[in-house]
Design goal:
Structural class: alpha+beta
Largest sheet: 5 strands, antiparallel
Strand content: 15-25%
Number of helices: 9
Number of domains: 3
Shape: rod-shaped
CATH architecture of the largest domain: 2-Layer Sandwich
Distance between the termini: 37 Å
Radius of gyration: 51 Å
Strand order of the largest sheet: 4-3-7-6-5
CATH topology of the largest domain: Beta-Lactamase
CATH class of the largest domain: Alpha Beta
Helix content: 40-55%
Length: 446
């Protein structure tokens, strides 16, 4: 496939060829028309000059009575010929230049009749102007004349060919110069794209971690998004690696406990109880660490996710789970509010916060989401017993290791804390005015 540079240069070449081709044809046609018009005007001038200096005698011949300023008519082989013939078929005057030529000039033209005509004599092409003249209105054929002047076309055609050579040579030279300039302009103009490609190759090779060049504003959004994408992918990879490391570390303790229980020859009942406890513990650890690794994080290349429909979806699900409580949900989320990030991350945040509130509330939960100067803030308030600040801080710090997570508050709020941190945000737990828990997640924009 052709490169972008080659495509633009090819398109420019075709446009220039078409433009200069049409221009050349138009100029060639205009010059040819102008040359033929000049020839016709010149021949008419010669014929009128002949009429002006000639007068007929009593025998019907015409004589030059004044000096004729057309020396070519008196020079043999000059290429300009003249003749005056009577309409009765007799010659009245022949120019010395045409003395030995039998040129088939037309005759019998009526008084004032004009005619241009192409002629050929001995393979030589001529172009003639002929006009009917009589000095008396009712003159007969013997007193009526046809004045004719002809010129060889070799000079005209040579002039046209010379103009064409000059024209097409000049247009070709100009087109070549323009193409060369166009090529330099394209090379200079597309240089930022080549720089982007080179920096991307460096990123793939591990030489660079981001695009660092200075780019035109048309490419700035592209390079910013590419940097965001590269940073996001590296962050995802880092989280996956950390999650796998934490998972491997976290599973050591329950596995060691299972091994020691088996080696201690404990009773079947004790072994069953230990296995159930450790399997449940490992399930929570795996769930937690996989959730940490799967967090998408911020991205500038995703469409905003509508927040209110997700809140309503979670409310419908929790109403079925806690149907015996008949929870009164108060949702204060603007319809136009959007979250710039992964929908599953937002669903995980809302699900854990609202599930925790539904679990501990008495009968009322308020869900609020609002736009702030920094980004977006989600707040979930319940009317339950609440929790003291020290316990809340401990819960938020859970999740650094999966084996520190416990059922209930711990793993869910630890997931929320990790997801918020992946977006550069934070999670806070306070006591509400009613004494219940107020859980707030602040997420910066983009």
């Amino acid at each position: 496939m052709l490169s972008l540079h080659a495509r633009i240069l090819l398109a420019a070449t075709l446009v220039l060829v078409a433009f200069f081709g049409v221009t050349g044809l138009v100029l060639d046609g205009a010059y040819r028309h102008s040359a033929w018009s000049a020839l016709q005007e010149r021949l008419q001038g010669y014929a009128y000059a002949l009429v002006a200096v000639m007068e007929p005698d009593a025998e019907g011949r015409v004589h030059i009575t004044n000096a004729l300023p057309i020396p070519r008519l008196f020079t043999p082989g000059s290429g300009l010929y003249g003749r005056v013939s009577r309409n009765d078929g007799r010659y009245a005057w022949v120019s010395p230049s045409a003395a030995e030529l039998d040129i088939p000039f037309p005759h019998n033209l009526r008084r004032g009749e004009r005619r241009f005509q192409a002629l050929e004599v001995n393979g030589v092409r001529l172009y003639s102007f002929n006009i009917g003249v009589s000095w008396q209105e009712d003159a007969g054929p013997a007193r009526s004349y046809t004045f004719s002047v002809a010129e060889v076309l070799d000079a005209l055609e040579a002039d046209i060919r010379g103009f064409r050579r000059t024209l097409w040579g000049a247009l070709g030279m100009v087109a070549a110069v323009l193409l060369a300039v166009q090529g330099l302009i394209l090379r200079w103009g597309l240089r930022p794209l080549r720089q982007v490609a080179a920096e991307l190759r460096d990123i793939e090779a591990g030489v660079k971690t981001r695009l660092e060049g200075r780019y035109p504003r048309e490419l700035q959004a592209l390079t910013d998004n590419l940097n965001t994408l590269v940073r996001s992918e590296r962050e995802h990879l880092r989280r996956f690696r950390n999650a796998l490391d934490d998972l491997a570390h976290s599973l050591k303790t329950p596995l060691a406990l299972l091994r020691s229980t088996v080696e201690s020859e404990a009773s079947a009942e004790t072994l069953r109880r230990v296995v159930e406890e450790q399997v449940a513990r490992m399930s929570r650890i795996i769930e937690y660490q996989l959730q940490r690794g799967a967090t998408s994080g911020p991205s500038a290349m995703t469409a905003p996710v509508a927040v209110r429909p997700l809140v309503e979806k979670v409310v419908q699900a929790l109403d079925k789970v806690y149907a015996d409580k008949a929870i009164h949900w108060r949702v204060q989320v603007p319809e136009a509010l959007g979250f710039v990030g992964d929908e599953s991350d937002l669903m995980e945040i809302l699900g854990n916060l609202m599930d925790n509130a539904a679990k501990w509330c008495r009968s009322r939960v308020t869900v609020t989401a609002r736009r702030t100067e920094q980004g977006m803030e989600i707040e979930v308030i319940d009317d339950g017993p609440g929790m003291d600040p020290a316990q809340a801080q401990a819960l938020l710090e859970r999740g650094a290791r999966g084996d520190e997570s416990v059922p209930g508050h711990g793993i869910g709020l630890a997931m929320v804390q990790d997801i918020a941190a992946a977006y550069g945000g934070r999670c806070r737990i306070d006591r509400s005015e009613d004494g219940g828990a107020s859980m707030t997640v602040a997420l910066p924009e983009g």
